[in-house]
Q: What sequence folds into this?
């Protein structure tokens, strides 16, 4: 969630500049896709992070977050940033673990509502 919030606070132009620099030597990622991704990612990260923090619609948030993480991991691997790619694998495992053990999620809105 904080990734999204910090990117929203910095503004679209700053995040787009970061992405453009990050992928400038990655011909497999078209520069024309970066503005749309820079607009979409911060609110999506913020929303999904907030849902997970609250424990609301946890299954949806974990699946959607996993798909976002997959897109990020593909881009990171195309950029050959192996340190970040390794961290993203850890995040992917945590998402999987949380999804599989959702039934133990008692301290959440979903847990209180019995979902």
A:
């Amino acid at each position: 969630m904080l990734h999204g919030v910090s990117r929203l606070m910095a503004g679209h132009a700053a995040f787009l500049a970061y992405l453009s620099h990050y992928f400038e030597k990655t011909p497999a990622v078209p520069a024309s896709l970066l503005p749309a991704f820079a607009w979409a990612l911060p609110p999506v990260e913020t929303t999904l992070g907030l849902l997970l923090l609250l424990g609301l619609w946890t299954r949806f948030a974990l699946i959607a977050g996993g798909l976002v993480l997959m897109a990020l991991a593909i881009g990171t691997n195309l950029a050959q940033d192996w340190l970040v790619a390794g961290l993203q694998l850890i995040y992917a495992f945590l998402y999987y673990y949380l999804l599989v053990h959702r039934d133990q999620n008692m301290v959440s809105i979903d847990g209180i509502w019995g979902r």
The mean pLDDT is 93. The chain has six helices and no strands. Residues 5 and 46 are 6 Å apart (CA to CA).
